[in-house]
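hey so u asked for the seq, here:
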Amino acid sequence: MTTRRALLGGIVAAAGALAVGAGATAKPRARNAGGLTPPGRSDLAITARKRAAWGANEAVRVKPDGSEQWPLRFSPVQGLVVHHSALPVEADRDATMRGIHDLHAVRRQWADIGYHLIIDPEGVVYEGRYSGRDPVPVFDAHPVQGRKPLVVTGGHVSGHNMGNIGICLLGDMTAVQPGAGARSSLVRTLAGLSLLCGVDPAGSFEYVNPDNGARVTKPVISRHRDWVGTACPGEAFAAQFDTVRAEVVRLVKGHRAR
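ran it, C-alpha cells below
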C-alpha cells in the first residue's frame, strides 16, 4: 500500500510540475488539483495540488460541531506577498507540506496553514489555506472579469493579512537563490494572480486594513520583509527580487510564458 501510494503521489506531482512549467491547458483532476486560469492566458494557468492530495489534517481546522476554528473571512485582493519557508525540504514534498501545516495549525495554533499557495523546488504549486468546499484555491470562487476577487484571509503577514495573498517558496533562500523550477513557477504564479486580480505588478498601492482602516503604501508584489521586521524571503533571494518582479511584468504585458 505504501509503495502504491508513493507511486501515485509521484505521478500526480510530476503532472503538476509539467502543468506549471509548460503552461499546460489540460484540466486537472478535481480531486487532486485545483486550477485558476486568467482569461485568454492559458499559459499562465495555476494548477495547485489539493490539500487532500498532500495530506492536510482537516481535523485541526474544525471544532467538534463542524464549524471553523477560525471562521473564514474574505476580502477584496489588495496585494501579493512572497515568502520562503526557511525550513529544510524533505525528499517527500508532501511530508514537508504536512510539517509546515502542523507548525502553523497546531504548534502556533493558527488553525490552518498561513500561506495561500506554496511552491516546491521543482515548481509544483500546492494549495495552502483552506478557502471553502469548491475546487478553487485561494478565493471564494474563480475570479471573473469585472469583479474584484475575494481572497480568504491567511496568516502570513502580521497585521496585514486581509486582502494579501501569500505565496511561499519551500526552502531557505538565505544564502542561495531558488532553483530554476521554483523561480519559473513563482514568476508564472505571480503573473497569473496579477491578471486574475486586476492588479499592476509594476506598481504600488495603498493597503487599507479592513478592520481598523490603517493605511500603508507597499509594492503590489512585495517581499514579506517589506511589511514587517523579518529576513524573509531570505537575504540572497531578497536582493534579487526586483528581477522577479520585472519578469512578472513582462509576462503580464503579453509576452507569453514558454
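Residues 19 and 47 are 7 Å apart (CA to CA). Confidence is low (pLDDT under 50) at residues 1-31.
lmk if thats what u needed
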